[in-house]
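G., the chain you wanted modeled:
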Amino acid sequence: MSKKDEKKEIRKNILKVRDEISAKERASCDFKIKKCVLTHSVYKEAQVILTYASYRSEVDTATLIVQALADGKYVFAPKVSGEEMEFWQITTAEDLREGYRGIPEPVESVSFPKWLAEQIGAGEIHVMMWVPGAVFDKDRHRIGYGKGFYDRYLDRLTDLQKENGCRWHVELHLTTAALAYSCQVLEQIPYEPHDIKPDMLFTEEGVLQSVNIQE
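Predicted structure as tokens:
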């Protein structure tokens, strides 16, 4: 079996397990994950949150978005166009509408790259990106949903910062944080060099994170 087919089979099996979590257990897990995220120093330091809009059985981000806005964070959510994805600013949870494959998406307002370009001379900007995923392992490797949107977006963001960082005089500190239920975390999964490896992985049991991240 090829690595691609192996990942596809693992994704199918784990998503079935995730879909079968009871409403009561899901609510309890979402509460614990939310508390873990909101009390972490990375969240507290972040001025900007790039968030996915939760769909079906994903870890809920609706209440996290509301809290981030209440905390005065700049919040951006993704919108798919063809094979690419861009993050657009939202100022209220009502800015999200049903979009790609029924997933809530923002109305197009100010894109994250445009917002970033307007922060000339702002110094350091700390960004926390909440990343969805189907399966993870204890080393934080990730199997997504097979479209590669986040892999490509992070590559574009890196290139954008390299091209414009000096001109903008802005130093971007980006921390990627995956949100998942513990049933989605296996001991080890197949991965490829281009796959995202989030800096942090939050579950209801706590957080797995890079040694470079301080509490």
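Residues 149-168 form the longest helix (20 residues).

Shout if anything looks off.
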